[in-house]
Specification:
The complex is a heterodimer. Chain A is mainly alpha-helical. Chain A has a single domain, classed as Four Helix Bundle (Hemerythrin (Met), subunit A). Chain A is built from 6 helices and no strands. Chain A is elongated and about 65 Å long. Chain B has 3 helices and no strands. The chains are: A mainly alpha, B mainly alpha. Chains A and B meet through helix 4 and helix 6 of A and helix 2 and helix 3 of B. Chain B: Pfam families: VMA21.
């Protein structure tokens, strides 16, 4: 049993185990930045539409863009955390369990960030446009944006919990 | 050829009119629309959004949490949210100051 558990290529630490950890890093950054990019672009369309009529509202209309940036920060945090746990084989025996766990952490953060960015983009676009016509929409818009952004935060919490079990 | 000759002067006049009107609108609107304080605020928040989460992670991972990267990552996420709420508060305050200035101007005018 001792020979099975030691060294790369054994039963618990196969040679392909780091692939899943790397896939976790990549999926966190790719999907998280997809969501952040969609949120930024879609709400940017709304801000461009508002800015031609009411340039004084641009400062408050930029809130969805800031929130989309936070989605990308979540993805960056989990990617940095996973990357700090992966090392080349001679110094570190990377187990298959750790690889799957890092994949789960990266996928949960990335796909939750994609969902949050999608929600922020749509709410940011329409919310900013209706805020131009009715200023009382602002508090509701910010609340909806915060609830959308919290979806990404849930993914980050699950990712951090998973990542701390290695 | 006749058609193009007919069209040319009309096109010129419309383009001249549009150009003149757009120039006049730009001159009258850009000056008060983006004051320097707003640009400095936006630049400051952009810099804060880039530097504070990552900086807090790499500063706190060795100093405060002694290598526990999970707490440092959570701190980075919390600092990003702090920047967001600071931005929301600043944006709401700016709207209030704009309103107060407008009311002052109206009172002076009256």
């Amino acid at each position: 049993m001792a020979t099975l558990m030691e060294g790369p290529g054994s039963e618990y630490t196969p040679k392909f185990a780091p692939f899943f950890g790397m896939a976790g890093i990549a999926s966190a950054m790719i999907f998280g930045c997809l969501g952040a990019a969609y949120g930024t672009a879609k709400s940017g369309i709304g801000i461009a539409g508002v800015g031609t009529y009411r340039p004084d509202l641009i400062m408050k209309s930029l809130i969805p863009v800031v929130m989309s940036g936070i989605i990308a920060v979540y993805a960056l945090v989990i990617a940095v955390l996973i990357a700090s746990d992966i090392g080349p084989p001679p110094q570190q025996n990377y187990s298959l369990f750790t690889g799957f766990m890092h994949l789960a952490a990266g996928l949960s953060v990335g796909l939750a960030g994609l969902a949050a960015g999608y929600a922020i983009g749509i709410v940011g676009d329409m919310g900013v446009r209706s805020y131009m016509q009715q200023s009382r929409v602002f508090v509701g818009m910010v609340l909806i944006l915060i609830f959308g952004e919290v979806l990404g935060l849930y993914g980050l919490i699950v990712g951090l919990i998973l990542q701390s079990k290695s | 050829m006749a058609a193009t000759r007919r069209n040319n002067p009309s096109e010129k006049t419309t383009s001249d009119a549009q150009g003149a009107s757009s120039i006049s609108i730009q001159v009258s609107q850009t000056a008060p629309a983006v004051p320097a304080s707003v640009i400095y605020k936006l630049l400051g928040f952009t810099l804060a959004m880039i530097c504070i989460p990552i900086g807090s992670y790499f500063l706190s991972v060795d100093v405060f949490f002694r290598g526990n990267a999970t707490y440092a990552g959570a701190l980075a996420a919390i600092m990003a949210n702090v920047v967001l709420f600071a931005y929301i508060i600043v944006a709401m305050k700016e709207d209030q100051t704009d309103r107060l200035e407008d009311e002052k101007k109206r009172k002076k005018a009256q």
